[in-house]
Amino acid sequence: MLVLTFHYKQGIPFDEAYYLNTHVAVLSKKTVLEMGASKYEVKKVLSSADGTTPRYSFIFSLYFETKEDLETFISDPRVQELKDDVANYYIGEQDIYIEEVVASFQGE
Question: What percentage of the chain exceeds 70 in pLDDT?
Fold first, then answer.
């Protein structure tokens, strides 16, 4: 499984209400599946383990079963609309990573 992850840096203005109610709302379950992803997660970073200010405020992750599914997502014309919308809630550059899940556990 591959994960495309967007990290939003702490200390940069971030419109949480717009992000959750408008930007993320565009990514309905149907849309995510049409674009090639199997699921997404939005995580709000509350603290760091050592008590220091965390590096990020939000982390958004899209999951893909195969490399081809990730490529389908990246080439989808709706991705440009999502990129263009970032300026409406965040003024910085996200840290973006492509990760491979090499071990996982999910309880029943």
Answer: 100
